[in-house]
Amino acid sequence: MTRSFMLDVATRCVAAIFCIGMTLGLGATAKALDLTGLDPENTLIIEIGLGYDSDDKDAKPKSTGKVVIKLLPDVAPGHVARIKELARAGFYDGIVFHRVIDGFMAQTGDPTGTGTGGSDKPDLKAEFSDIPFERGTLGMARTSDPDSANSQFFIMFTRYPSLDTQYTVFGQVVQGMEFVDLIKKGPSHSVVAPPRDRMVSVRVAADVKE
Fold first, then answer.
1. How far is it, in rounded angstroms, from Cα 62 to Cα 52?
2. Which domain, by its residues, includes 87?
3. Which of 4, 6, 163, 197 holds its CA 20 to 30 A away from the CA of 133?
4. How far lies 193's CA from each of 24, 53, 55, in Å?
5. What is the pLDDT of residues 159-190, one digit of tens each?
6. Are 3 and 43 found together in one domain?
7. In 10 A of CB 36, how many CB atoms?
8. Closest Cα partner for 194 from 64, 49, 97, 94?
9. What is the CATH number of the domain that holds 181?
């Protein structure tokens, strides 16, 4: 066996190991998103940052993952329009997941990180539907007033029948739910203690350049 042949084999082995590492998530490059069959204008891409050392706005996450969401303009046109408007304005970038309950949901969208804040836009009229709250469903948070949704929303970890027809459903996770599962959890009736995971960026797929 010649030395050049041995080097070629070794090079191929290293390349194969590198590719396997990437596939298993051991490398720094995330797998490409599959947006096949989705309307880019009604698809949201949320990059989630995980494992922060502090809540400082300049803090860097230990890892990130992208979540693809199919928006439902036929079900909740007003809420979908608001989410896209805020995303395009960069409103959601850097906002923490302030309330995350294991076996229930992860809530975000409050720039104050307290659960009491919102955008400067007017509150939205409820757009309740018969779509059930299941794993990966996105719903708008609100107060006891049905017409008080503004910017906060939540992503379901599991099926939760008691929310059906009581909150506006506006989207569904179609890719990347494994990253939602990794968001730092907190107590049932309080905000998550710092440091908290956050949305690094929120983009409408139509605005994302290849």
1. 6
2. 32-207
3. 197
4. 30, 12, 10
5. 999 999 999 999 999 999 999 999 999 988 88
6. no
7. 5
8. 97
9. 2.40.100.10
